[in-house]
Amino acid sequence: MSVSVLKSNGLPFQLRGLVARLYSTRKSEVSSSDPQKDTIRRYLYPPNIRNKASPTGTWRPDVARALQRAIPSVQAHETIERAWLLHQRHLRKKRDAELQRKFNCMRQAMQELEEIDSRLFREANKQEDPRARSLAEVEAMKKMSEPEKRAVESRVRGLFPRELRVPTDTPPKNGWPNEWRAFQRPLA
Amino acid sequence: MFSRIVLSSCKSAPKACLLRGLATEASAAPAALEVAQVDAAPLKKTAWPNLHTGIILNRSPIITRTPTAFEKAYHAYQARIHRALHNPFPYDFYFKQGSPLESRFNIEERRRERKAFGAPFGMQTGETSEAEKLAEATMRDEEEAMPRVHEADINSDFKNLHRRGQRNLYLILQKQENGMAVWKFPQGSVDRGELLHHAATRGLEVECGNNMDTWIVSRNPIGVFHPPSPASTGDAEDVVFFYKAHIMAGHVRPNRAHAQDFAWLTKGEIKTRVDEDYWLGIKDMLSDF
What we know:
The complex is a heterodimer of chains A (about 190) and B (about 290).
Chain A: H1 35-44, H2 63-70, H3 74-116, H4 118-124, H5 135-142, H6 146-154
Chain B: H1 2-6, H2 14-21, H3 28-40, E1 50-59, H4 69-85, H5 91-94, H6 100-117, H7 129-140, H8 151-155, E2 169-177, E3 180-184, E4 187-189, H9 196-208, E5 212-216, E6 223-225, E7 238-250, E8 261-265, H10 267-273, H11 276-282
Parallel strand pairs in B: 1-7
Antiparallel strand pairs in B: 1-2, 1-4, 2-3, 2-8, 5-7, 6-7
Helix pairs in contact in B: 2-3, 6-7
């Protein structure tokens, strides 16, 4: 941070462009060619940081009164924090228990499948290669139209499909997509 | 990812496998499965079991969960603290001075201040009433968001996919079995030499039609169920392997020959409709919420 010690008029000509990186610059030196850049510069690097409470900016003028309204007391704040962490812990334990139950079901199924049929077991354990195309797929793709080919190629094996919608705060305006043309996807 | 873990196979007796694999509390489910397993164990060498694939077709949640009262209160509390302590907002970077957007922002910001801290905060100091009226007019003209509760919730329309937007819905079909109407997941048989996940896709298409965009998640089954076989011990037993699938578009059109009725239900609702031993076999595969 030795740059901050240099005064702007002591700089050689080549370094004049670096005036933005100085924390203490003379107001007259700051050019007003681009007001947006000036605003950004003013907010990122306030002119005098030594007498302000926080290094990147100030607190609001009535910060003490606002904090008094926001936080009831030290003990109350700590109690609230502990209650929240406990709540998060409960949620986490419930989620983990559910996942554990689901995994045990899967493990049970795979154990029984191995005992019943080893070929099916091997096939079920195969890793999906996203780029591989089975013979059936290649054969089927030859006779498809362009939109159908795109539909097949967009569904990558082993990855979640794009159509699986992320939940939002409010439902979509068009509701559930009712129109779906029957399309025979070739088996992998 | 799970496949590498389940490859570590258990070569010992089936009963030991069963007991070793269950890390959760003992419930009625392992007892029922255990009984079926013990009966089948000496006969496994003679009769090849009939394989079936069941499909758990899931409609994922459409909207986010409603926060509980405690969560809402905590979020509001943290927002108040942040509002008291945050660095000054560079409003003149985002809003051009004197523009209607700026006056609208000021009005909304004062409202938020009053809501967070109370009356003395967020009082305006001489703002023109025309700018305020203009800003309020623009706020009113904005589009309304869709409501989170659908009419399918009010009417309890179990065939509608908009019902219970926050929950995971599962498809069950009403089938005729030995003259009784039972509710089950869609099921298909496995042909000789056919892979299980192919059989699952085929079974779903046969039972529910192909007017929907479905995606079977993986090649692995997520669970297994042994239906109680009423016949003598000489026959091959039935084994149902369940596969998870998601529905993303379209609707179910059940095949009349296989199923009379269908419904999209949450986990709790499935429990009320399905037989007890079937429920014990499938409950751990479904999501709680």
